[in-house]
Amino acid sequence: MADKNLDAFKENQEVTVVDASKKLRIGIIGCGWIAGSHMVSYLKQPDVEIVAACDIIPGKAEKFIAKYGLTGVKTDYASHKEMLDDESLALDAVSICTYNRQHAEPAIYALNKGVNVMLEKPFTVTTEEAVEVMKAEKASGKILSIGFQPRLDENMKMIKKIVESGELGQIYYIQTGGGRRRGIPTPFGTTFIEDKTAGLGALGDIGCYSLDMVLNAIGYPKPLTVSGYKSAFFGKDNNYVGYGRHHEYGDLFSVDDFAAAFVRLEGGIILDFRIAWAMNLDTPGDTIILGTKGGLRIPSTECWNGSVGGPMKIYHEVCGQQVETVVPVINKLKDGETLFDRKIRSFCDAVKYNLPAPVPSSQILYNQAIIDGIAKSAAAGCEIQIEIPEI
Asked: How far is residue 124's CA from residue 102's CA, in Å, rounded to a whole number?
């Protein structure tokens, strides 16, 4: 018979108690697909109350709130400004779930109003926009966290632990990226594929995640130069298999479906990057971190899912012998818990207890600068220096 007292020491017995005596008052800006993920996670938090939602499409916010069976939520706003100007809401924070080109404006307005912000990824479309958001963050003293839930995965944390342990020695080269054989995201219309709304394609959608995986592990060194390339061969094809009956989507496609880059980082580190929404290959390769004492191979995933594609492997020497150490996949998510839930919970805790932002803008600014640099280098057809203004 099992000893229940011993079972109490198992990690999966850990229970987090949330103080629900004071509820955080949350508003949602932009009620499209990703807002649903925010809503589902917020509704799991016992100390959260959704009090408002808005969308530029009339009636969309009302339908969105009704979908989740909520009552008493104010939705009669024509814009994010109207909602944020409504002092009766007494908002503690907002989730900004708009399309990419509308990330900066509501984030700046919310911060200027003294409201904490959970901003979906990518940070913005350009480095210049990200800088303006951070200026508002600095002036307001409020929390701005960017929506990079994959870094809350235990396997991502392990990658960072391995690097920080010194097991790999001095890092000098990184290969990273990811992609899909066929995976241009159009089930919800053309928001992701039109420049006027998205601004960035695969680069901003999943490229930012793969960059964060390695940059966070090595301490986010400053990017110095980038030689970038991007293309849209599949997206511009009206006969692309994912478009189905929407043969007009190819004519509307105006972002990237593939991008690659060679990036120089501070500390003499080289970053070899590639990302794809569509390609004639199952994967552009595993992520590799090379150091002077060892190398780490991180198996790719079929479609970016916020974790690793299998057990990782460290290549190093022990007592003069070349050996490989397998790092098993870690799964510490509780029953019913998702990485999105962790993202929302960590943000709520930061707001309640005045903690640092879970995913700080100071780090993601470098992520954004690389993405923006790739786009600008691709347009120029040559390597460019990455300029990041002081804030």
From this structure: 8
Can you tell me the distance from the alpha carbon of 327 to that of 197, in angstroms, rounded to the nearest whole number? 41
**153 close to 306: Cβ distance less than 8 angstroms:** yes
Looking at the predicted structure, is the pLDDT value of residue 354 above 50?
yes
Owning domain of residue 102: 11-149+339-359
Query: Does residue 26 belong to any structural domain of this protein?
Result: yes
pLDDT in tens, 129-178: 999 999 999 999 999 999 999 999 999 999 999 999 999 999 999 999 99
Q: Which two tokens stand for residue 317?
A: 């020497």
Pick from 70, 67, 119: nearest CA to 95:
119
pLDDT band at 16; cut points 50, 70, 90: low
DSSP string, 55-101: -SSTTHHHHHHHHTT--S-B---SSHHHHHH-GGG--SEEEE---GG
**Helix, strand, coil % (nearest 5) of the chain?**
35, 25, 45
- The CA–CA distances, whole Å, from 129 to 69, 315, 368 equal 36, 41, 10
Contact 140, 114 (CB under 8 A): yes
User: Residue 310 corresponds to which tokens in the numbers above?
Assistant: 């299998």
Per residue in 18-38, pLDDT (tens digit) is: 887 899 999 999 999 999 999
Q: Is the peptide bond before 122 cis (omega within 30 degrees of 0)?
A: yes
What CATH number is given to the structural domain containing 50?
Answer: 3.40.50.720
Answering whether pTM is above 0.90, one says yes
Instruction: Note whether 181 and 272 are same-domain residues.
Output: yes
Q: What is the model's pLDDT at position 3?
A: 47
Roughly what angle, to the nearest 10 degrees, separates helices 208-217 and 154-164? 40
CATH code: domain of residue 245: 3.30.360.10
Question: How far is 64 from 31, CA to CA, in rounded Å?
Answer: 6
